[in-house]
Specification:
The chain is 73% helix and 2% strand. Among the domains are: 281 residues; 155 residues, no CATH class; 54 residues. It is built from 36 helices and 2 strands. It has a two-stranded antiparallel ribbon. Helix 12 runs antiparallel to helix 16. By secondary structure, the protein is an all-alpha fold. It is a multi-pass membrane protein.
Amino acid sequence: MQSLNSCRVKIVYLFNCEIKSYLLQLDNFAKYFTIRNGGLILVSVNLLIIIPFIAAALILFLQKRVSRIHIGWFVLLIPIILFIFLVRYIPNIANGATYLHTINWIPSYGINFSSYLDGLSLIFGLIITGIGALVIVYSIYYLNENESLKHFYCYLMLFMGAMLGVIFSDNIMVLYVFWELTSISSFLLIAFWFQRKRSREGAQKALLITVSGGFSMLAGFIMIGNITGSFSFREIIAIIPDFYDHTLFIPAMLLILLGAFTKSAQFPFHIWLPSAMEAPTPVSAYLHSATMVNAGLYLVARFTPVFGGEGLWFWLVTVVGLVTMFWGSFTAVRQTDLKALLAYSTISQLGMIMSMFGMGSAALNNGYSADSVVYTQATFAALFHLINHATFKSALFMVVGIIDHGVGTRDIRRLGGLATYMPITFTIAMIGSFSMAGLPPFNGFLSKEMFFTSVLNIREANIFSLEAWGTLLPVLAWVASVFTFIYCMIVVFKTFLGKYQEERLEHPAHEAPVGMLIAPIILAVLVIAIFFFPNVLGDYLIVPAMASIFPAFAAEADLGVTISAWHGFTPELIMTIGVVVVGTLLFISLKYWKRIYALLPESWSFDSLYNAVLETVETSSNKITNFYMTGYLRDYLVYIYLFFIIVVGGTLIYTGALNFDIAGNAPIDAIDWFIAITMVVGSIAIIFAKSRLTAILLNGVIGYGVALFFVLLRAPDLALTQTVVETVTTVLFLVAYYFLPDWQKENSSRKTKSVNLLISVLVGAIFVVVALAVQNEKLFESISGFFENSYELVGAKNIVNAILSDFRGFDTMLEVVVLLIAGIGVFTLIKLKARKGEEELENK
């Protein structure tokens, strides 16, 4: 045994040396394409985000010019180039380097396009680009060429760019922009087969839940910015210890966690992920196993140094994660659709990773100590399993796509015996499933053992009341692992072994094309390779990421963990053996105890609750809309004016702003009183007029009265404009008089007219009071003196013309443009109507 271990150590050492040598050579090679002082390197981090968006725009124009070649081959170059570019950074990042570049965006609000590349973002970047490249290879053979491929790859590039923006953004407000872009682009990808009702519903559910969480996260970001005065991750982490007692600290933490939980499908927000499985399989393999759902995990990891020392953060992240793990695994066993089973298994695995991030945050309780380093191992395990999960789960989704593509169904009840006809697919499925179940010699075994180590270590912690409740954590973790083992066995044995049922399949079983097998084979090889050489990931990727999450410990403690498949007969190994034994017994007796799921009818599920809430909201919205959308202009004006009366009038009364003094105003002449009383009488008379012609003439009286006031107040230009407008308006009313409906049919009751009169009086009174109050409270000097000097300023003797053409020239120009557009619209409508009339005459 010692010689075997010695030989293994030498192999690992030589392999590490070869990897290091290769990376250094790649680093030297890449320098030929950069400026040696590093300037271009910094700019290129931003380019990592921008390039996919540029590619998305070009794809729409590229397909027409490359119709003979599948457009996917051109799109494939983007993630490959970005992946190689990120690999070039591994040696420097492993040595503690970080890269930051800032482009000013809204500096007055502290919002800048700052890209930050460190160990944590590097892991996620490699997953996004690496899995993205494999998914594109897979999709080239999976999707039919008759599909709208340019839109598919355009959406895929938009999503890739948005995800890279999330992980590389140092500014949390910029991160939020990309965060919502991931929701929008995933909506487009899930609804790619929009002709299917379930695809549209799944896309809608994913959008509603993730965007709602995003809004709460935005509120949390604003609070953090208010607390610290900065939106930069680095600056927030540096100064946050001074604000732990701030009243907004806990609310900000809860709102940010809500955004992370919704995006990463944590209980009870997990319901969107199974519905999103209506997306094409490449989308599921990319978004819902390796990238989008990991955005919430990234957010929790990135904010761990900010909130990690808080007990509430520890309990929420840990417990929600473990509950999600249990519920996802428990629900996965009852599924009959392979893709739905993988969806719930993804939920379970995400919960497992989330719980480990929560347990790792205990290291920040009461500052640095020797015991704290033990808790950081949970975070190490979380990052390790994050990588492992991306490999085996993406492979399994591709396997399900191959099965669906080959035999025409994903229903487990109709499958069986496929191993004989699909041996390569069966091998990949077995590797992925056994890895997810935590069996050797696959990478999932290593990270699952580290997960058990984490829950056992945290049970013994003397913090956060763990001495009372800590024992429940390993119990819940073990039970969830048992159900994980069961659904993994279902994938292998119920699908590929047993009786072959060709009569229940849409197509005879056959092995997939080589092109469709390339990506899952690569992932399956990685699953095994990581098991034998795990410390390559640990040394070059996970340790630098740990330094990003625990910057205060990085200089004082060794945050790395030596990953090994054999530690002796430890409690973790005993727990694993228990999982295998109990899981095997439960799998064999599945048909007997599976009846317990009948005790939880679908009507009690969170899906049913979501549908009920959505239906109630839609019904209530329709009722409210039908209540105020009556189709009558009078009702809409009543709503507007009532709102104005309540809000403005109520504000004036509440704030005591009704004080005014008219003693210093100019005296009102008899002619002013006469015109004003005439206008008032005309206004009241319109309401009670019995003829439309009378109402039109009375409306003209009001307009011409305003023109007379302009004359008396020595504003001839305004008087002329008012006269022209009023004349045109009156003439138009008279011209349209013939086409208007019968006045008697529209004539309202006396009660309605009285309400109209009351509303009119109140609105008029409020305007008068506001005008008097504003006149009495002059906070600044009037600008009229500046305009009166128009001749010296612009050489204009007419002050009105000077204001229109010089002082507010742009405003006037835009008004003219609006009038021009309106005129073009009217002209177009007239021409269309005339053309339609001519066509009708010709048809007759």
